[in-house]
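In this section we walk through a basic example: taking a raw amino acid sequence and producing a predicted 3D structure, encoded as discrete structure tokens. The instruction is simple. Fold the sequence below.
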Amino acid sequence: MRYLIVVEETDTGFSAYSPDLAGCVATGISKEDVETNMKEAIEFHLEGLREEGIAIPVPHSYSQYLEVSA
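The resulting token sequence is shown next.
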């Protein structure tokens, strides 16, 4: 499955979350680190859901940029 992640720059590096997986977050010093850590976090999160017998959420979020007057 492919899950959308949102990556944000912070004062100390980067953080990420997935809108489709509540509570699934990761941090990293670089963009590459946070993406690697987020992939591991998602895999761990899904494993936990399976163990608890909870249905795996189907990805439904998407991203889009909008042009606006500033």
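Looking at the output, two observations stand out. The chain is about 30% helix and 15% strand. The beta strands are 6-9, 14-17, 25-28. In the next section we compare this with other chains.
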